[in-house]
Design brief:
Strand content: 25-35%
Low-confidence stretches: none
Largest sheet: 3 strands, antiparallel
Number of helices: 3
Structural class: alpha+beta
Radius of gyration: 14 Å
Number of domains: 1
Mean pLDDT: 80
Helix content: 25-40%
Shape: globular
Length: 97
């Protein structure tokens, strides 16, 4: 997932890596299999749905953690709500309570 370090942090795409990612190497992305989101997705909303306190963007998630994140990302994407609207911020605030 490509994250933009804005405030709040957002996801803008789901990318499939071809190669790389080891320390000191670049990740080569398969553009034909990657997806840019129509509405960027709030990272905090995905974390909450996935049962994660906060994403560690230096971490590699796998197994059940990765599947929960994937499911949460899909649920957020299907809301089809822009992340940058006051309505979405209110929704997220209500979900936290």
């Amino acid at each position: 997932m490509t994250v933009i370090e804005t405030s709040p942090w957002i996801f803008i795409a789901l990318e499939v890596a071809l190669t790389g990612g080891a320390e000191g190497t670049s990740i080569q992305v398969d553009g034909d299999r990657s997806v840019e989101f129509n509405n960027s997705i709030l990272a905090d909303a995905v974390a909450k749905r996935a049962g994660i306190d906060r994403f560690d963007f230096q971490r590699y998630y796998k197994g059940s953690d990765a599947r929960r994140i994937w499911k949460a990302l899909d649920e957020e994407y299907r809301l089809n709500k822009p992340w940058f609207t006051p309505e979405r911020w209110t929704d997220l605030q209500d979900e936290r309570e």
